[in-house]
Structures are given as structure tokens and as C-alpha cells.
Write a structure and sequence with these properties.
The complex is a heterodimer of chains A (221) and B (240). By secondary structure, chain A is mostly helical. Chain A has a single domain, classed as MetI-like fold (Orthogonal Bundle). In chain A, 76% of the residues lie in helices and 0% in strands. Chain B is an alpha/beta fold and 240 residues long. In chain B, α4 crosses α5. Classes of the chains: A mainly alpha (221), B alpha/beta (240). Chains A and B meet through α5 and α6 of A and β6, α3 and α5 of B.
Chain lengths: 221, 240
């Protein structure tokens, strides 16, 4: 039996798909923001921390990067249920992606920290800045510049990873598509449509990232 | 007054400072000379606690640098330091390099910090460069920025760690001119330097380091004109 392509159904569903896309993008933005904040101490801890601090930050990074993101989402959604903690789909996806992004970003920042001259820290400390102030005002702004493209790539990963939320009932872009295709049986149309939407969103993120990329003149020689 | 008492420092089994005693009075200009690896730069960075010591004591205006109760961030405001490697902050304009610590450490308002920055940049002849990024500066200009940045904090002492060593010869003079001007203004300064002519000219006292000890010290006329030890005589004749 031949298959009748019907993209009209997708157009009818467009408002719902857009709402789903908005949710996907919001989760990506929030989990990236939280991920960046968490990744800074993790990167420093694994970079030059000692004892327990180094051990904990290393473990976080290794777990986040070497286990499937889906397993991480399942852990927070189903796994925590074993301890009587029940999270809503978006909260489980949000926490899992924060954990995941923080691990990857920490590894990116660790490389970036190596690229900042040790004298920058000395210079900052010599002016009376404490370690937190020195990292915040002097070291990390340079790390962000050095790792700007990698942060952009991680953002795209975060956006695409939100699609895993559909598997635990999140009504994100993929969740909407799954819902509609199960009701209309227009599987190909809906998944092609959301692939296009993900692609456009990812390109849009890259475009904005390049647009706001720190100027070349500001880079360290 | 800076009092350095029986300071020792080791890296593993290598002892780089072997019992240093030195007192620097307010208003004095002290030049520390000696071969590379003799411990002079290490000692300088111990004075503001950027390097730690193994034993002994360093006291700045009655405050023991390595006492656990000492707030080092607070103490460092008294001690400006400029390093051999230019370490301007590359992601900030020249002006912001100077105002950052004023606003974040001293809590000075933006306007007031900008006024201080302009005064200090004027002092080192960099006011015209206030709004460029440090990568657009020459090595000599970056060193003068380092000096302005340190001076902005209103230090009682200025420490200079071979500030001309990494500079092209034609850029050395402009930095030395700034140092000369500071000494004329009565700033207490400790200079680790390889510029013997300069040490002779501006220093009240010259301290000769050799293998982790102060081998000889005295007024420049004595150190350069009438060195007592063979080592110093050899060093001075080599260094010219």
C-alpha cells in the first residue's frame, strides 16, 4: 500500500509545535545557564582542587560525560521514585540536563583555564582580589572568550537533548510530534517537520552566537 | 617598614632562600641585584604573600604576612607589585584594568575610580591610551599600565620584579623614567633589577643576592665602587 504524504495536517498542528519548540528552547536556555554556573566551580575543582573537592568534581564530570543522557533523565524521573521522590517530566529533564551540561561545560572550561596565563591570577591576587573575585572578574571572562565556540556547540547539544524528554511525557517539540503522529499516523511528516524546526533553531543559535562573539581585538595575543 | 627576618624557602629539596634578614624603611629605594636563580624575585613575591615561605617571618607595618589571622587581600593593598611578564588583563580596556580593583576591592564608585585611573594613567603617560585594549600597547606601555594599576590602589610600598627584563632595549628607558619619577616623589620601592646603571642612580641601598643569601649590601657607591667580596666584584664587572 502506498503512503499518502499529507503535510496539511502538520500545518494545522503548527501552533502546538511552536509551543513545543518554545518549551524545548526554554529548557535549553535555562539548563545551559545553570550548567555554566555549576561548571565554573567544577572546572576549578577538577583543575587544581585537592582531596574531596577534586574527587567530587572529577566524578561529576566523568559521570555526566560517560553515561547516556537518556539514562540520566530516567534516573531523575524513574530512579528517584525508588526513594519516594517524584519529579514532573520537565523538572526531571531540567535537572538531568543541568547535570549533563555542567559536566561537559566543566571539561570545556578546564581546557580554557589552561589557556589563561598563570600570571593573570597572580596579577589579580596582587591587587587584593580574593580567589573568587579573581576567577570571576579576571580568569573566567577570558575562559569564556577562549571557549566561546565550544559553549555554542554545547548549547546545540542541550537543545537536541531536550527531545529525550518526550520519552517521559514532556510536551516539548518532540513530545508534541509524538502525540500528533500517534493520533494521525502521519509519522514521517511530523518527524520531518520537527527535524527541520530543530535544524533551524540550532542554526539560529549558532547565528546569534557568532553575532555576539567577542571581538577579535579583545582577544589575548 | 618591611622587616624580613630569617626567611627560608625551599622547593622540595632545593633551598632557594637560606635565611634572609633585611629591613626596608619608609621612603627607601632598595635595589636587589644578583645572578638569576639567586632568590631575589622569590623573596620579592614572598613580601606580599604571593609566594609562601618555609620558615622565618615577614612583617609589613607591624602585620605579619604569614600569620593565619592576617587578611592577605587587605594587606596587599599596601603593597603594589609589577611583574616581569606584562600581565595586563587582556579582556578589559586600559582604563578598566586600573579601575577594576578600585571598584571591586576598595568599593570606590565608578566615577571616582575613573578619576583615579585618569590621574594614574596621566602619571605614567598613558592617558591617551585609556580606551584601547592592552594588546594594542607595546611592552613598555604594558609595564607602565602595570605600574598605574598598582599605584591606583594607593600602596605604601611598590615592588618591582625585573620589570624591564622582558622589554626590547629601546623600550626600557620609558619604564625606567617612570620609576625614576616615582622615586623622586618619595615612594618606598624595592626593585629586583638587572639594570646596574639604574640601580646605582636611584637606589639608596643595593642588596646583592648570591645562592639564596644576602652576600653583601650597602649604598650603591660602595657596592659598585668598592665591592668587598670576589663574587660581587665578578658580578658587577660582568653585569657592567
Amino acid at each position: 500500500m502506498s503512503y499518502n504524504f499529507q503535510f496539511g495536517i502538520v500545518l494545522d498542528a503548527l501552533p502546538d509545535l511552536m509551543r513545543g519548540a518554545a518549551l524545548s528552547l526554554s529548557i535549553a536556555i535555562v539548563t545551559m545557564a545553570v550548567g555554566i554556573v555549576l561548571a565554573m566551580p567544577l572546572a576549578v575543582g577538577s583543575w587544581n582542587g585537592k582531596g574531596l573537592v577534586a574527587c567530587l568534581s572529577r566524578s561529576w564530570i566523568e559521570l555526566a560525560r560517560n553515561t547516556p543522557c537518556l539514562a540520566q533523565i530516567y534516573f531523575f524521573f524513574y530512579g528517584l521514585g525508588a526513594f519516594g521522590i517524584f519529579l514532573s517530566p520537565w523538572l526531571a529533564v531540567g535537572i538531568a540536563l543541568c547535570f549533563n551540561n555542567a559536566g561537559y561545560l566543566a571539561e570545556i572550561f578546564r581546557g580554557g583555564l589552561n589557556g589563561v596565563n598563570a600570571n593573570q591570577m597572580k596579577g589579580a591576587r596582587s591587587l587584593g582580589l580574593g580567589p573568587v573575585g579573581a576567577y570571576r572578574y579576571i580568569v573566567f571572562p577570558q575562559v569564556f572568550r577562549n571557549t566561546f565556540s565550544s559553549i555554542g556547540n554545547q548549547f546545540i547539544w542541550a537543545l537536541l537533548n531536550t527531545s529525550l524528554g518526550a520519552l517521559i511525557g514532556l510536551y516539548d517539540l518532540s513530545g508534541v510530534a509524538m502525540d500528533y503522529q500517534s493520533r494521525t499516523f502521519k509519522t514521517f511528516e511530523f518527524f520531518l517537520a520537527i527535524a527541520v524546526i530543530y535544524f533551524i533553531l540550532a542554526k539560529l543559535v549558532l547565528f546569534l552566537a557568532n553575532r555576539f562573539k567577542p571581538g577579535g581585538a579583545r582577544h589575548a595575543a | 617598614m618591611i622587616e624580613i627576618k630569617q626567611v627560608r624557602k625551599s622547593y622540595g629539596s632545593l633551598e632557594v632562600l637560606k635565611g634572609i634578614d633585611l629591613t626596608i624603611d619608609k621612603g627607601e629605594v632598595v635595589a636587589m641585584i644578583g645572578p638569576s636563580g639567586s632568590g631575589k624575585s622569590t623573596l620579592l613575591q614572598c613580601i606580599n604573600g604571593l609566594e609562601t615561605i618555609s620558615s622565618g617571618e615577614i612583617i609589613v607595618d607591624g602585620i605579619s604576612v604569614f600569620d593565619k589571622a592576617t587578611n592577605l587581600n587587605h594587606l596587599r593593598r599596601k603593597l603594589g607589585i609589577v611583574f616581569q611578564s606584562y600581565n595586563a588583563f587582556p579582556h578589559m580596556t586600559v582604563r578598566r584594568n586600573v579601575t577594576l580593583a578600585l571598584t571591586k576591592v576598595l568599593g570606590v564608585s565608578r566615577d571616582q575610580a575613573n578619576a583615579i585611573a585618569e590621574t594614574q594613567l596621566q602619571r605614567v603617560g598613558l592617558l591617551a591610551k585609556a580606551d584601547v585594549y592592552p594588546t594594542a600597547l607595546s611592552g613598555g606601555q604594558q609595564q607602565r599600565l602595570g605600574i598605574a594599576r598598582a599605584l591606583a590602589m594607593g600602596p605604601s610600598y611598590m615592588l618591582f620584579d625585573e620589570v624591564t627584563s622582558a622589554l626590547d632595549p629601546e623600550l626600557v628607558a620609558e619604564v625606567l623614567a617612570t620609576l625614576r619619577q616615582l622615586s623622586a616623589e618619595g615612594m618606598t620601592m624595592i626593585l629586583v633589577t638587572h639594570e646596574m646603571q639604574f640601580a646605582r642612580e636611584v637606589a639608596d641601598r643595593v642588596v646583592f643576592f648570591h645562592e639564596g643569601v644576602i652576600a653583601e649590601s650597602g649604598p650603591p657607591q660602595q657596592i659598585f665602587g668598592n665591592p668587598k667580596s670576589e663574587r660581587l666584584r665578578a658580578f658587577v664587572s660582568r653585569a657592567g
